[in-house]
Structure formats: structure tokens, C-alpha cells
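Hi C.,

You asked whether I'd gotten around to modeling the 433-residue construct. I have! Everything is below, sequence then structure, no commentary in between.
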Amino acid sequence: MDKIWLILQREYLTRVKKKSFIIMTILTPVLFGAMIFFVAWFSTKKGDKKVIEVLDDSGYFEKKLKSNEEVNFVFIGGDLEKAKADFEAHGSFGLLYIPKIDIDKPDGLKLFSGQNPSFDLVNMIKGQISEEIRQLRISDLDIDETMLDKLNVDVNLKTLNMTETGEKESNAGVNFGIGYIASFLIYIFIFLYGAQVMRGVIEEKSSRIVEVIISSVKPFQLMMGKVLGVAAVGLTQFVIWVILMSAVSASASTFTGINELKDNPAVTRGADVDFEQMENNEEIAGIFRAIENIPIAQIISLFIFYFLGGYLVYASLFAMVGSAVDSEADSQQFMLPITIPLLLAIFSLGPVLSDPNSQLAFWLSMIPFTSPVVMMGRIAYGVAGWEIALSMLLLIGGFVLTTWVAARVYRVGILIHGSKVNYKVLVKWFFQN
């Protein structure tokens, strides 16, 4: 045990003293925040205004299609073939052709353009045309639009969880966001730190340093020391990131005035504001209340457990692969079987988050190879205590099993050089005494 501790200390101190570790630990929260800011900024930034010529043979849409900040509709007349030949020469983005249509069965509308139009642009045009045809049908049927509008009902459905401490407001969107972010971070961390273990093993094996170390410690002690040392590095980095991001989040909330909005009585009661503003404020206040009801401490605690558990399951397998090859390029043939369960877990997040209590979600959160990613996706929705306990026990059992298997291959592979290794050879090493 003392030798494992010594190797753990060496792995930990060697990595945390590197300038790259210090720089990335500090810069990652900043880069992550900057990435979110730029994505949000570019998503709200308007592109160049596009001109779309409209040839309306139906006569229904003249002055009905409304130009906006993104599109300027210009109505033209004449022949369709001539319009198709001329619109690009006019510098227009596209040509919208509306033939003579039956408003009960509108068909034959076409949008010509030199470039593929965006999804938003097509939907905007379809929306305006649909709304105008709706108005034409209402007029044709002599329906009172005021009475028709009264048939539209906007239901505000509040979701409440019945807990031992009483009713708590929840928000499916908030739960989805937290579950997705936690699962994705676990997935990234397992790959990131697992690959570090594999590279470390390959470097020591290639430089023959391992032959000197093996003369003093057992291969299993070397593997465990390396795996636990990198795990300590990852845990240190995670704790620093949580502290930095909490500080940045608190500063951003104060700077943007979100705290004042949350504490504003008009927001929480919806008083002294117009009806639309009151609805928006009530929705925001509901999100705040849902976030306050989320067990953040439990989520962070389980995140650390599942990160460590998932990492230990996969890191021992990464170490096994590193011991079997002489270079990182040779490791690719053994990576696919290891990464398939992780890819399955991340690809299943969509259906799991859509129905966190489904059979798929339950079984994937029990299997040790997928449970770290899938269970973290379910935690924000609330999972029964016995399910969490069973999943944790199975994850510990998975770690013991993979470590035992990896150690049997590692003790032989770490001393083999220049040999062509395949799955048959790995099996042979596993059963070798």
C-alpha cells in the first residue's frame, strides 16, 4: 500500500506542477464562459438583409407579406421564366413564386435561390403565407375572428414534486439542462483523464523507465498508483473549476442584475406590470424557484462519485491498452471496444432525458460502463434512493472486476516490447500465471 501511495504522489505532483495544468485549470472556466457568450451572441446577431422577389399570380399576397430586419419582400410582375433568369442579376437572394391557388388546397408555391435558404427563413415565409391563407379562409367562411380567438386557450401548467418535506416546484427544462451538462462533463472527463493514463503508461514503457520501476514494485501497484494519481489530479481540477465558476457566476449575476430581478416583488408576484410582462416575470420566477428546489449538494456529491467510479472503471482498461502497445498509434485497434459503451451512453441521453423513468434509463444507469453518464442525466429529475444505491454498488463492483482483468494483462504486457499484439495475445496474457 505504501508503494501505491508513493506512485500516486509522484503521478499527482508531476502533473499538477506542470505549467500546462496550471494554465488550463485557470483558463478553462474563462474559455467555457467565453464560448457560451459567443454562441449566444452570434445566435442573436442578425445577418445581412436578404431581398426576395415575389411573383404573385394569385393576387392574394400583395402588401400582405411583411418585410422585417432579415428579409425585404419586393413584388414584381411578368413572366416566371424571365423572373427566374433575372432575380440573381438584380442582386436578390431568391424568387418566391405564388401561382393561382385554391385557398382550401394551396399548392405549387416555390422558392428559387442561388444558395440553400436557411431553416429559419423558409419557416418565416411559410408562416406568413399560412397566416394570410388562414385570414382568407376566415373571411371566406364569414367567421367572426374575435369569437375564433376566444377559442384559443393558453394553459399554464405548473409541475410540483410531492416529497417528504412537502410540495416543491420543478421545471422540466431546468432538469433537462442540468442532466445534459452533468452527463456530458462526465463523458468528457472519463475520456480526458483515461487517455492521460494510457499515454503515461506508453511513455514509460517506450522509454524503458518502467523496467527500473518494476524492479522495486509490482505491476499491479504501479498501475493502481498511476490510475489513482491521475484521478486525484482530475478531482483537484474539478474542485478548482467549481470554485472559479461559482465566483464567475456570482459576479455575472450581480453585474447583469439577475439577483435584483429575482428579488423584485413585481417579478415574484407579477404586480404593477402589464399582462404580457407579468407572464414573462412569472415564468422567470418559476425557473428561479425550480433551481432553488434542485438538490445541488446531492448532485455535486454524486457527480464526484460517478466521475471517480466511471474514471476508475475505464482508466484501468486504458492502462491495460497502454501496457499492450509500444506506441499511441498501435492503441487504436483496442480503443473501439472500450469506447463503444461510452458512446452508447452519450447517444442514449436524448431518450433518457425525455423519459428518465423508462426501462432504458433504468438499465443503462445500472450497467457500470454506462451508469456514470446516464445516472447523472437522471439525477436532476429525482431518482429513488434504492436505485442510486444499487447503481453505486454495481459501479464499485465494475471497478473491481475491470481492475482485476486489466491487472492480469498489464503485469505481462508492460514488459513485452516489439511483439505484435492482438486480442488472442491479450487473452493469452490474461490466463498466463
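If it helps when you're writing up: Residues 267-273 have pLDDT under 50 and may be disordered.

Thanks,
B.
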